[in-house]
Design brief:
- The complex is a heterodimer.
- By secondary structure, chain A is of the alpha/beta class.
- Chain A contains 3 helices and 8 strands, in the order βαββαββββαβ.
- Chain A starts with a strand and ends in a 25-residue tail after the last strand.
- Chain B is an alpha+beta fold.
- In chain B, the strands form 3 sheets. A 3-stranded antiparallel sheet of chain B has the order 1-2-3.
- The longest helix of chain B is centred in the first third of the chain and has 30 residues.
- The termini of chain B are far apart.
- The chains are: A alpha/beta, B alpha+beta.
- At the A-B interface, β4 and α3 of A face α8, β7 and β8 of B.
Chain lengths: 147, 370
């Protein structure tokens, strides 16, 4: 059984290495400061005992006031999981550092997230729309997009 | 005299027999050798995630059928399981076993298609495919008995399945389960040590284990690289903890290993079917669905729920605001994410190998583009 890690304990560990990166934590996940995502991701992947080597899922959700990017992570070695989240508050366009260099699996998923929500992943080598065509206006999974 | 060469970019697809649907690749060649590849998606995009937000939880089930249309049952299952976990719905035991039955039948049917088309790509034009169609046809007849459909079954419901097994189903499935190992032997005899297949696929398109994990590969693609990871064991759902089966793994992650792993998985699925059949026969018929209101309103919250679909980790991330429709419904399809490492697998190989490597990943464009 995949063991969900307690966000609070992981947050305490990250806090010792990267102070101020984790804004909030509960039993299931951690909320990270947008600018620290890549740094925290690298730490989660490499820290002994955590070793989150597998990015299961990367997506976002629109909560009207902000867009939340969600990373579902797990470890093949320890069989545990954790959700890492980032809230991007408006009015400026959401911007998050890319985790492409940490997990290759972020490649297509970040592109899809950019396509659907307009989240700009800074540092992604090929951040283009994935499913919609070039020149399409708008980001369809935002709540404001009504067709 | 030295010959001056320059890279040439060729467009393959979206309409091409080797692309298994509407998939397009921009491939850069140096002579005949691939030096770069860019996959281009979206030709079959139907906006399922947006559609989910405008439908009740139950109304979305038939739409899930149409993602991976070669494995509709497991799509239903992944979605229903996610909503059931979110809403706290418990299933009757018989429903769990029926789901395992149809899920494993679906795995066999999917792998038959995957292997048949893979051999098509290898140049064994149509003959092995038609052998595999022969067995798949029997499975489709069984699904037809259950749901009246041959491709998009819409069979599962929140809390169970739409109807109980008809009386003629179990004898027919028993017959199939008894016959199938013989057919798998036949395929292995014809194919597994076939010299041409070995020459074309052994050592081709290697995906090392470390890269497979980093690229979020899952299912037979991940296992062929030697990673012993199966969600049915690693993060079990339904009644899988009570069932005995092995997790076949490959050695080096080449196209042949992916072929071989699927072949062995069919054997394991037959094994699971035997056990589930024995269990279902012990149970009184009639209880196949929990009492669930017509409008399910899961409490506020979210769930990330995954199953081992025939192609890999099929997961749903559903956010509920307490209403009758999901606030956000993300579909994590294994077909799309397994393509992440396609470039790494084919660079350095030739055009003819590209077709084989792509075929060995086993993707369905309905799930890639959603």
């Amino acid at each position: 059984m995949t063991q969900p890690l307690s966000g609070r304990e992981v947050a305490a560990r990250i806090g010792r290495e990267i102070p101020g990166a984790v804004l909030l934590a509960d039993g299931l996940g951690i909320w990270v400061r947008p600018g620290s995502v890549a740094q925290v991701a690298r730490f989660l992947k490499e820290a002994p005992g955590l070793e989150m080597d597998y990015l299961n899922n990367l997506t976002a959700a629109d909560y009207l006031d902000y867009i939340e990017v969600v990373y579902h992570l797990s470890s093949m070695k320890h069989n545990h999981s954790l959700a890492m989240k980032v809230q991007c508050w408006g009015p400026q366009e959401p911007e998050v550092p890319s985790v492409y260099s940490v997990w290759l699996g972020a490649d297509l998923q970040e592109r899809e997230c950019y396509d659907m929500f307009g989240v700009r992943f800074v540092g992604h080598p090929n951040l283009k729309r994935l499913l919609f065509w070039e020149g399409f206006e708008g980001h369809v999974l935002r709540k404001e997009f009504t067709g | 005299m030295a010959i001056r060469t320059q890279p040439v970019t060729i467009n393959i697809g979206p309409q091409h027999p080797s692309t298994h649907g509407v998939f397009r690749m921009r491939v850069t060649f140096d002579g005949e050798v691939i030096v770069g590849l860019e996959p281009i998606f979206g030709y079959l995009h139907r906006g399922k995630e947006k559609l989910a937000e405008a439908r009740t939880y139950t109304q979305f089930i038939p739409i899930t059928d149409r993602q991976d249309y070669l494995a509709s049952m497991t799509n239903n299952w992944a979605y229903c399981l996610a909503v059931e976990r979110l809403a706290g719905i418990e299933l009757p035991e018989r429903a769990e076993y029926i789901r395992v039955l149809v899920g494993e039948m679906m795995r066999i049917s999917n792998h038959l298609m995957a292997l048949g088309f893979f051999l098509n790509d290898c140049g064994a034009w149509q003959t092995p495919l038609l052998y595999m169609y022969r067995e798949r046809e029997k499975l489709l007849d069984l699904f037809d008995m259950l749901s009246g459909q041959r491709l998009n079954y819409n069979y599962m419901r929140l809390g169970g399945v739409s109807q109980d097994l008809p009386p003629e189903f179990l004898p027919a499935l028993k017959k199939f389960v008894a016959e199938m190992p013989g057919y798998i032997d036949e395929y292995e005899q014809l194919l597994a040590t076939n010299e041409i297949l070995l020459a074309r696929s052994k050592g081709v398109g290697i995906l090392p284990a470390e890269l497979a994990i980093s690229a979020s590969a899952s299912g037979p693609v991940l296992r062929a690289s030697g990673v012993k990871w199966d969600i049915r064991r690693g993060d079990p759902y339904s009644v899988y903890p009570r069932l005995q089966f092995e997790i076949p793994t490959g050695q080096q992650g080449d196209a042949y290993d992916r072929f071989w792993v699927r072949m062995q998985e069919m054997r394991q699925s037959v094994r699971i079917l035997e056990q589930a059949l024995a269990a279902v026969e012990q149970m009184p018929p009639g209880v196949y669905r929990a009492k669930v209101p017509a409008l399910v309103r899961p409490p506020r919250g979210e769930v990330y729920s995954r199953i081992e679909s025939p192609k890999g980790e099929l997961a749903y991330y559903i956010v509920s605001d307490g209403g009758i429709a999901p606030w956000r419904c993300r579909i994590r399809g294994p077909s799309q994410i397994n393509l992440t490492a396609l470039k790494e697998m084919v660079v350095g190989w030739k055009l003819a190998d590209l077709v084989i490597v792509f075929g060995s990943i086993d993707v369905v464009m309905g799930e890639v583009d959603r």
